Amino acid sequence: MLETIKEFASEFFVTGDPLILGAQVSIGLAMVAIVFILTFFKKWRWLWTEWLTTVDHKKIGIMYIICAILMLFRGGVDALLMRVQLAAPELEFLNAEHYNAIFTTHGVIMILFMAMPLMFGLFNIIVPLQLGARDVAFPFLNSFSFWMFFAGAMLFNVSFVIGGSPDAGWLSYPPLSEISGSPGVGQDFYIWGIQISGMGSLATGINFVVTILKMRAPGMKLMKMPMFSWSTLASSITIMFAFPILTVTLFLLFLDRYLGAHFFTVDGGGNPMMYLNLIWMWGHPEVYIVVLPAFGIFSEVVAAFSKKRIFGYKSMVFALMSISFFSFFTWAHHFFTMGSGANVNAFFAVTTMIIAIPTGVKVFNWLFTMYRGKLSFPTPMMWTVAFIPCFVIGGMTGVLLSVAPADFQFHNSYFLIAHFHQVLIGGVVFGYFAGLYYWWPKMFGFKLHEGLGKWAFWLWNIGFYVCFMPQYALGLMGMTRRFNEYNFDMGWQPLNVVSTVGGFIMGLAFLFQVWQIAHSIRFLKKDTSGDNWGQGRTLEWSIPSPAPFYNFARIPHVVDQDDWWEKKERHARGEADPAEVIAADTAPLEPIHMPKNSGIPIIMSGFWFVAGFGFVWDWKWMIILGLVGVVVTMLARSFNYDDDYYVSVEEIERIEAAALKGAK
Amino acid sequence: MRPVFRKLSVLLIVAMILVLSGCSDQYLVLDPKGPIASAQKDLILISSLICLIIAVPVIAMTAVIVWRYRERPNSKAKYKPYWEHSTKLEAIWWGIPIVAIAILAVITVDYTHKLEPSVAIESEQKPIEIQVTSLDWKWLFTYPDEEIATINYVKFPVDTPVVFKLTSDMAMNSFWIPSLGGQLYAMSGMAMTLNLLADEEGVYYGSGANFTGKDFAQMTFNADVTTKEEYDRWVQEVKTTEVALTDAGVDELKEPGTAEVAQFSSFPENLFYNIMTQYVEEGETGAHAHHMTSEASKPDDQAVDEDSSEHHNH
Predict the structure, then answer these.
(1) What is the pLDDT of residue B295?
(2) Helix, strand, coil: what percent of chain B each, to 5?
(3) In terms of Cα–Cα distance, which of B224, B256, B226 is closest to B150?
(4) Which residues contact A140 (CB under 8 A, 6 or more apart)?
(5) Please, what is the Cα angle at A250 between A246 and A253, to 5 degrees?
(6) CB pairs under 8 A, 24+ apart, for A50-53?
(7) What are the tens digits of pLDDT across the range A341-362?
(8) Cα separations (Å) of A202 from A170, A243, B112?
(9) What's the CA gap between B112 and A632, in Å, rounded?
(10) What is the C-alpha to C-alpha distance for residues A51 and A201, in angstroms, rounded to an integer?
């Protein structure tokens, strides 16, 4: 009996690696500490009613952002471990298997469990406020999306202490990812972690398309909509088309692994190249999914801190939509070197290059928004300005990669690694940081400490260039990605050491940001006035910070693009508002219809987690338990008719008065 | 923007140019030893130049605009908060990238056809064929004409076109000798053709570029380019002094694990073809099977079919 338990435990838990043992112990201790603190301060009920069951889009957004920051930490630690190994491969800091697992999880976590939730967090908090809406179109679904993301992320993350992490690369090409190449459970954690969170992502995409198309305040025509909402629309539409492909691809891989199907194995007549086609039909649009909202953020920030309208609004909208369209015609550039033939390669080379055109136009438009503006440089603006040269260089190396015959020399090399980190960090991360800093006071009612933020900014930027510029050179020196060691004669070590130093500078920058947040919470200066930067242009700045749970006491009537700014201008000039604005502002308060909180999303996602865990280990009873739970919670939801309520006029008045008092 | 940062960005551009035009012999891609790599290098430089023509002014413009329009007391810069559209300007910057991309597209399409890896290289010398098999985690090279085989080491004569036939026993790999030209995927169930030529003697670094699992990093090899005489002498030497690669030896090589450099005086007949077609069901007539047989070197005798059927259950 004891032997069976021992044997099971050694298979179930990852053993034998001191680094992982350390992680296991610290995870255990952290969990005990959390439970203790919540119990000691009697916070369980508060946590459940205020957060875990909430359907308030702003709170869901905050939960997304907290998860994203934790995942940024984990993915970042993965990156630093890899960089240590590569700076001194002779030390054998990580063995080959551990190294392979780490670069796989680094990629998956950064894209799917860091960039995506950070993006969804910002969508959730800002988009309804910008639209003048009280909530997203489907608040219950929104909560469900978050918890599905959370369940998927947790399922993926436990793999490194339980069962072993996936180690076939972040896109898991078969046949390596098939049962023949990866017999362990790591690959199953990969499939189910992504599959479960992917359902949430797809639902979010649909939710925001509907929200943007149906929930805009009266008067807000599409061509008056703020740029961030436009970018959300572009990104959400792309999600709706791309994520089903991912779901199907992973499901086919699952069938291969579980039922011995042969979709992607040569024996039995399958074709691994089909997997590559499918995964990149999702994968390339995916990078545009995460970068388009960053473009939206830059457009908002640059207009606000130039005190000027965004230049070329129509061009910007057209560029966003065409990028999202063309993103579906680029997938084959990920395997130019797979012998598709000259005509296919030429076609995809050109369609890939075409994306550079609208992207270039956007850069010019941002520049000319600043031109003849009055620029100030708080942290969000710093990130925006730093983004431009970074993205121009990254975009340029992207165009170089799209030149198919030249790509034969770049493909799979460090040049590629440097390129996509430059566009993803320089574009997505810089963009989301700009967004976080910009909207932080809107979320919490206090600003982050600017001095520490500038330290973080400079360290991030310096660290970035020190880390990734040498990688372009390494690529041209013939260094291939995913090597855990290399021959000293190749002369790669000096540049790898430099790159590692850069990585640690970025790590330090992250610590500055954590310090900045902690410091700002400790010494916060409450600022609930609403228009925290004094330069807000769009509707979210017209209501108190943080926004009351019903957002707008009265639904505003939109007249202009940058409506709030125009309103302030009119007041400064002593002009009266147009009649419809006055009518909207002076209308009597009415009771507000709101959705009730619900525990069903978190419980249903919990059952999905159980089912996913069962699938990973092939424990039939657990699969059945999980899926039955999912069905039961769905039924419970469909028979629950008591899911809404009204906020009374008295309560709205009380909340508005309190917010007004806070503002003065 | 702080002046520090402007200086930094200028410095970076200079550094990029230095790196791209650098010809230190460590930059394998920029130090080509054959016509394919050399054409690829030209293409890299041409396309970089086209991109830089746009990128450098944009970055310079960013610096100037950020500096000039920063908010400060008695700024002389114009402030026009409602200046948000100019058809002329927008036409210009839709135009510039369109023109640049059009030029680049034309060059790319042209080179894509010229440098298609399956196109034979013109030469007076008779091309030699080398079959390359990616095994877990070693490279197997077989010379069908010389009937010798090597592991993690390949040798061929200078100025002679080499036709590499690539396949893989399991995971997908990518065969890359940066000094001679770009990589091509090696996949199980098919044979890809990569034509390369070295016009200078030397020992060139080669590697697998697509991740294949645990000891992927050990899959590096040297490509030794020598004179024709030296090469012929080497072939004779291998034939006479080395042992043969037997079926049992092949099975051992197919086991996951790394391997030292090795040479064999002969190898089992149709080894490459059998590895490539090991998964093909007998009598299969799908397009896929067709594709494979047409690309592969033809088997010499009928024994092949029986041989390959033994491997069905792998």
Answers:
(1) 43
(2) 40, 20, 40
(3) B224
(4) A55, A595, A598, A600, A601, A637, A643
(5) 145
(6) A52/A599, A52/A602, A53/A143, A53/A597, A53/A598, A53/A599, A53/A601, A53/A602
(7) 999 999 999 999 999 999 999 9
(8) 20, 6, 37
(9) 57
(10) 20
Of B1, B81, B312, the CB nearest to A385: B1
pLDDT tens-digit map of B103-139: 999 999 999 999 999 999 999 999 999 999 999 999 9
Tell me the C-alpha distance between A335 and B184, whole Å. Answer: 9
The structure tokens 């970068």 sit at A291
Give residue A660's pLDDT: 74
Q: Which residue in B8, B69, B94 is closest to A373 by CB distance?
A: B69
For B149, the token pair is: 């085989």
**How far from each other are the two terminal CA atoms of chain A, in whole angstroms?**
70
Q: How far, in Å, CA of B92 to CA of A345, rounded?
A: 30
Coil, strand or helix at A230? helix
How would you classify the pairing of strands B128-135 and B162-168?
A: parallel
Judged by DSSP in three states, A527 sits in: coil
Judge: B112–A481 Cβ closer than 8 Å, yes or no.
no
Taking the C-alpha atoms of residue A193 and residue A112, their distance in angstroms, rounded to an integer, is 10
pLDDT of residue B289: 44
Angle at alpha carbon of residue A173, lines to A10 and A163, rounded to 5°: 10
Cβ contact B184–A337 (<8 Å): yes
**Distance separating alpha carbons of residues A130 and A238, to the nearest angstrom:** 21
The token pair at B102 is 């059009």
H-only helix segments in A424-572: 430-444, 450-476, 493-522, 563-572
Return the closest-CA partner of residue A563 out of A124, A123, A130. Answer: A130
- Burial class (CB within 10 angstroms; exposed 0-12, middle 13-18, buried 19+) of A497: middle
Q: Is the pLDDT of residue A380 over 50?
A: yes
What pTM value is reported for the model?
0.93
Assess A466–B contact: CB distance below 8 Å, yes or no: no
Helix (H, G, I), strand (E, B) or coil at B217: helix
Give the residue-averaged pLDDT of A627-638: 96
Window 169-188 of A: residues touching B by CB (8 A cutoff) are: 169, 173, 175-176, 180-182
Over 70: is that where the pLDDT of A211 sits? Answer: yes
User: Is pLDDT at B13 greater than 90 in this prediction?
Assistant: no
CA A230, CA A212: separation in Å to the nearest integer? 8
Distance (Å, rounded) from C-alpha A325 to C-alpha A319? 10
